[in-house]
Specification:
The protein has 140 residues and is an all-alpha fold. 61% of the residues lie in helices and 0% in strands. It is built from three helices and no strands. Bound molecules: prephenic acid. This is Chorismate mutase.
Length: 140
């Protein structure tokens, strides 16, 4: 059953103009800030959808690894991913150290999900074929 958290506004009631600065800043400055924030909101929404797609893909990897009893982590793959992402970050004028930290954070979460999938798989006697939902790997 879906639980609703009534303490938090849902996305329909999102107020893009919400700010602790309202009333304390020159209206022209506030207008410019809100305009820039509208781009930030679009980027954040895109990031959420991108991350959801990435986790859908890694969930498939998790099922595959569990079915074939492969280890959750693949350090060789991670080394290559990090080196590539650091190069991309430099090209994009993003701090490579931040890019590495961000990727490591995501991969850490993916490995946690893989381990949960493997546990479910083993608890089912190694017979689950990946069609059943694992315990809750898509929630942090
Ligand atoms: O490609 C894999 O083998 C994965 O499990 C995915 C992934 C990733 O999130 O990119 C996660 C863990 C591994 O250590 C390497 C990569």
């Amino acid at each position: 059953m879906t639980e609703l958290n009534h303490d938090l506004p849902d996305t329909d009631s999102y107020n893009p103009a919400a700010s602790s600065l309202a009333g304390h800043v020159d209206p022209a400055v506030m207008a410019e800030l809100l305009s820039i924030r509208s781009s930030i909101d679009n980027i954040d929404a895109t990031l959420v959808y991108l991350l959801a797609e990435r986790f859908k893909a890694t969930q498939k990897v998790g099922f595959l690894k569990a079915a074939h009893r492969l280890p959750a982590g693949d350090p060789g793959r991670e080394t290559a991913q990090i080196a590539r992402l650091r190069r991309l970050a430099e090209d994009a004028q993003l701090d490579p150290a931040f890019a590495e930290k961000f990727l490591n954070f995501i991969i850490g979460e993916v490995i946690r999900h893989h381990e949960a999938i493997a546990e479910d798989h083993n608890a089912a006697g190694g017979t689950s074929n990946g069609t059943a939902s694992p315990t809750a790997p898509l929630t942090a």
